[in-house]
Design brief:
single chain; 191 residues; mainly alpha; 0% strand; elongated
Length: 191
């Protein structure tokens, strides 16, 4: 007989790395710097809306400055304390909640990696512009911050961040498998 043939084998495979790099601290995709900027701008815009609304309330509480407390009040010129002035206060409160809520949700959901937050940022920008139109010039600071939030969500690093999150969310963990046998009571080694 001749030489025995050796079995051909392939070299060992290198350890597979996950396709999406995850943070070892959080187990989530690492956030780019622009995600921090967008979320920070959104939260600052919400704080600015709160400040503008508080300033409006301070001016509206004093009869001398009520007429100039907001543009909407100047345009309609209601009598203080009447039903129309109370209705306009409700409109301004609702506008504050809508504008701040839309921008805050857009910033928070962009931070969490949801792609739809791009469009929420644009809607928040429009609502913030409407809020600034009916309140005061101070609200334009919030419009600028909402613009930063909306623009940052469309930048290429955020696009890659959203794609990483969609890959992470697409992976399903292995389901629970009930064990074949469960021992009840004290373990034999402790008897």
């Amino acid at each position: 007989m001749t030489d025995q043939k050796q079995i051909q084998t392939l070299p060992p495979l290198e350890e597979l790395k996950p396709s999406t790099p995850l943070s070892p601290r959080t187990g989530e995709p690492t956030r780019p710097v622009v995600a921090w900027i967008g979320a920070g701008a959104a939260y600052l815009a919400v704080a600015c809306v709160m400040g503008v609304y508080a300033l409006h309330w301070w001016q509206a509480a004093h009869p001398d400055s009520y007429a100039g407390s907001a543009r909407l009040i100047q345009w309609v010129a209601p009598d203080p304390g009447k039903w129309l002035s109370l209705t306009l206060e409700g409109v301004l409160a609702a506008a504050s909640v809508l504008a701040a809520g839309a921008v805050g949700v857009a910033g928070f959901q962009a931070w969490n990696g949801w792609k739809w937050s791009r469009w929420a940022g644009l809607i928040g920008l429009v609502l913030m512009g409407g809020y600034a139109a009916v309140t005061s010039n101070w609200a334009f600071v919030a419009v600028g911050l909402a613009l930063v939030t909306a623009v940052v969500a469309f930048l290429p690093p955020m696009r890659r961040y959203f794609e990483r999150w969609s890959k992470v969310r697409a992976e399903r963990p292995a389901g629970y498998r009930r064990p074949a046998w469960i021992f009840y009571g004290r373990l034999p080694r402790f008897r």
